[in-house]
Amino acid sequence: QEKPSRLSAALFGEDCEISHEQVYELLKYAALGKCHNAAQPSWCHIYHQSHLAGVVVIVLHEMSQLHFYKFYLQFKHLRRVFRHRFTLPPSSANFLANLYGDAANLNPQNTAQDSTSTSSQHAINSSDLQRDPIIQKYGEEKRGLTSYTLTLEELKKNDYPMKGSPGYEGYMYTECDQPRTDSSPLFGLDCEMCLTAKGNEVTRVSLVDAQGRCLLNELVKPESRIVNYRTRFSGITRKILLPVKTKLADIQARLKRMLPHDAVLVGHSLNADLQALQMIHPSVIDTSLLFARNEGRRFKLKFLAKAVLGKEIQCEQKIGHDPTEDARAALELAQFFIEQGPAKVAELNLEMLLTTERLTEISPNKSALQLPQNTVQREQNGPSQLSRSCFLDCLQMTGQKPLLLGRQEPDSSGLCQGNLSSSNKQILQQALKDVPLSTFSIIQFSLDPEHVAPHLLAGICEKVRIKLTDMLTIYAGPFDESFCLKTVKKEFRRCGPIRSLTVVTETYQPYVCIQYEVLEAAQLAVESLNGAKVAGSIIKVQRPVTGTMLDCDVLIKELELDIENEGVIYVAGLKKSLTETDLQEEFSQLKDLQALFLPRDLQSGKHRNCCFLKFLKPESAVDALEVINGWAVTGSRLRSRKALAPGHLWRWIWQMDHSNEKQRRDILSAEKEQQSNFEQELRKKLKKLDQHIRKLYRRLQNNTLCIVLFPGVN
């Protein structure tokens, strides 16, 4: 919600442009709140920040305000649901890097003095122990392994392949149907995947037994064309896979033969491995769920191996993960949990250890033992001021898990979890699963490179400019040969500010061509003066009849329904001598009037002869229209109608009209057929993107702050 003192500017106006820094202020406070000295944004206000369920940022990569208004009718969900809309200035740097900052470093002045510490600093008291999610899920008593295998409900909730479930018809069933006991054998399983034209496909599989012995470590040749080997994570390269003959079916058959009928598979997020293997197994222990955290968040395998087992895995010096090492680590974690019991695991205070690890990464000169006590000392002295650059670090230190999904590689700082996908559909499917588990998510949808070619975008820009110009233009007539041009101009000016007026003499009788400065003025002229008597003649008022204007009536209707125009009306025919104070007094009798905006000429700075009124309730705006238009019967100069153009669009129209003339001529000489085919394809893609956003939006929890960014290409 906007601060009252900034309301008119925020809703209508000349201050509708906000900076990347202001977006950053909003996201930082929404995610962190007062607990980390994150201040309320300077330009708006969030009430009850602690009630926010999460923050979701949807980035439409390389798309801009140009795409939104050229394909306005295709963005049906966006324009009807997202209430606040602002313009961002172009960014010379990488947009996300500019917004979220680089890899984090705490300000030196915020680091507490070193002090002696002991191993007891990680101790967890009894009341905290009872609140630990592991204790709340399993209790304190030791149990056998069957107590930790996933139930049918948990398998379904976490997207495990299940027998008889839709979508898994072609999957191989291991036929391990024998009842499980606490002495059933455990097997660790892990796979490495690459990205193919079909999606995630297995490239390497490892299986270890309960003693940690490797039973299977096999490379697999994917059926589909490989799009991304993901060498950084998988260690797989084209050269490694070139001589491989083993197919997925061969591995499925071998695993089925190797597993006893009462086998329990252990893995970390094992659902992804089984989906890639296209296999169904009824009894699993998932260590990402076993070591429970609040709000569905999960510890990484690398962290658990170090914190619980004291083992370093997935070392940065190695190229790619070792699936045998990962399978063995997951198996040993499950064995530790079963042997020690939930209470002993909870006493490890894994959340504190994770915070310690993050702080160690940020301040490498501090020892791991010193950091927790320093953290406590800082909390006792009051929360530390956080620099902009450590925004995502702070999220992780508070136990929140920033999520990044898109086609781009994960950030080098490792703060965001990346998921490279080959299509927007795959990104959406992953987001529908992962976003509810994260309190801060960045979801990036992209267009194909050919759809953001500069010359094609320039063509779109020119078409938008032409269409806006046509929508601002009306033709009126016919008039008598000796008509008074001054009278005509005076009458049409009552509808709003006129940019230009010319007489059309090519016709049998004279007409006038009028171009207005705001859409509402042109529409008001069409609605109020068509069929009226002006300068002694009954005239017809219409817009230009061109191909781009065939859907003008539909567009006008949809602009009226735009959620940003809800409760906003346009009033024209004002005396230019009136000030904003004068107008507030004149309209003071209107019920629920919330704000008034008096536009200025962007060049001269002078007031226009029109204004916009914002009402608290839409029905109050309708009542105000009746009142103001009723005044016209008694001789008032005022005319009014529903608003059509939000403030940032009004400003943008002016900027579009002042674009470079030479550039326009160059663009118009481009191949029209290529442009038409390109636009038709792009229209379909953007409509599909809008549907993706709608699906994701509907899956969000109540009280989620959702922001959609069109960062543009420059």
TrEMBL record:
Residues 668-699 form a coiled coil. SUPFAM superfamilies: Ribonuclease H-like, RNA-binding domain, RBD. Keywords: Coiled coil, Exonuclease, Hydrolase, Nuclease, RNA-binding. Residues 107-126 are annotated as: Disordered. It comes from the Eukaryota. Residues 472-546, 567-645 form the RRM domain. GO terms for molecular function: exonuclease activity; RNA binding. Pfam families: RNase_T (PF00929), RRM_1 (PF00076). One of its GO terms (cellular component) is nucleus. CDD domains: REX1_like. This is REXO5 exonuclease.
